[in-house]
Design brief:
The protein is of the alpha/beta class and 343 residues long. The protein has 16 helices and 9 strands. The structure holds coproporphyrinogen I.
Length: 343
């Protein structure tokens, strides 16, 4: 197997820097868009063969060093009794947002095998289709990011309802975070048993908090997830955006690799996090919409700042945008591999 990603998670020497992209199995791929004409997102997620097909597309056409399970962070919530829809152009919309203690208390503990058999089957089918070419990344949403969807009911910029509940009703907040972290830890353990090689915890929206609030309201729960995976030998990536001021706290919560977005130079971020963890990121996804020369100059700058240090996983600072030209992505992968080979 191409084990560049695993080696980078362990901060071991690699023959070239591993590259993969968040949302690489999504909308920017014409082959995915074709499948989406006939099936909605949840239909694809519930069909293991289709998941395997979509998940392996970028490996076959872009030479990336990892596949990511085709699923969504919201799906396990269905097993906890949450009803939602994924709406075109919006994202997840929750039917009855969490507003009070009763709502938080009525979430049922996830039973991954009974509630999400199709995801575990998708992992087996994807592993089989990958045929040991590259590792498979499994994932879950971090408790804060999931809580924000549950409380707001949909995507938001300000997180006012989420923070209001967190500040005004800490009892409900802590119960919700406790329920989510317990269920996500079980979910990830089941993904590992089903065959995923690496885990990424997506705390996409936690950057709206300051470090003191992160420490008090989030860290114990994210930490619990990483802690409950410690007896597995699976490597973990802890990702967030807008987290330049939370990096030390995120490291404390856990993860062999910390994800960083583009709002901080990668060398500054790594110095702050410490060289005893690996790092992933930090190209702005919008750069990939520009001319390939600009893509290459931004990439060269990241590689220069990393200085060939062990433990770098090349990625974007957030998900690949739907209108990204596929050729730019293929050229970027080649550029990173060529410029880091035999470093
Ligand atoms: O119908 C569609 O095709 C809509 C787009 C889409 C896709 C391709 C959604 C709706 N989910 C997914 C799959 C998905 N979601 C994957 C697997 C594909 C891949 O990575 O290649 C993954 C890892 C996710 C994870 C996910 N879902 C996150 C965390 C990552 C991130 O980008 O921050 C989040 C926040 C979601 C919620 C969600 N689901 C879908 C959308 C459009 C959103 C984001 C909405 C928002 O901005 O709040």
């Amino acid at each position: 197997m191409n084990d560049r990603l695993i080696k980078a998670c362990r901060r071991e020497e690699t023959d070239a820097t591993p590259v993969w992209f968040m949302r690489q199995a999504g909308r920017f791929l014409p082959e995915y868009r074709k499948i989406r004409v006939k099936h909605d997102l949840v239909e694809i997620c519930k069909d293991p063969e289709l998941c395997a097909k979509v998940s392996t597309l970028p490996v076959e056409t872009l030479d990336v060093d990892a596949a990511i399970l085709f699923s969504d962070i919201m799906l396990p919530l269905e097993g906890m009794g949450v009803k939602f829809e994924i709406e075109e152009g919006i994202g997840p919309v929750i039917k009855k947002p969490v507003q009070n203690f009763e709502n938080a208390n009525s979430l049922t503990p996830l039973q991954p095998k009974a509630d999400l058999p199709y995801i575990l089957e998708a992992i087996s089918a994807t592993k089989k289709k990958l045929d040991s070419q590259v590792p498979l990344i499994g994932f879950c949403g971090a408790p804060f990011t999931l809580a924000s969807y549950l409380i707001e009911g949909h995507a938001t910029r300000e997180f006012v309802k989420t923070k209001r509940l967190m500040y005004n009703d800490p009892k409900t907040w802590h119960l919700l975070m406790e329920n989510l972290s317990t269920s996500m830890a079980l979910y990830l353990r089941e993904q590992i048993k089903a065959g995923v090689d690496v885990i990424q915890v997506f705390d996409s929206w936690v950057g709206c908090l300051g470090p003191q609030d992160y420490h008090r309201y989030v860290l114990p729960y994210s930490h619990k997830i990483f802690n409950r995976l410690r007896d597995t030998d699976t490597h973990t990536i802890h990702f967030g955006t807008g987290t330049a001021n939370l990096l030390e706290e995120m490291k404390q919560a856990g993860g062999d690799v910390i994800g960083v977005d583009w709002r901080i130079p990668i060398d500054t971020a790594w110095r702050r996090i410490g060289y005893d963890v690996a790092i992933q990121g930090n190209l702005d996804p919008v750069v990939l919409l520009a001319d390939i020369d600009l893509v290459k100059s931004h990439t060269a700058d990241i590689l220069k700042r990393v200085q060939g240090r062990r433990g770098h996983i090349f990625n974007l600072g957030h998900g690949i945008l739907p209108n990204t030209p596929k050729q730019n992505v293929a050229d970027l992968v080649r550029f990173v591999h060529e410029h880091t080979r035999e470093k």
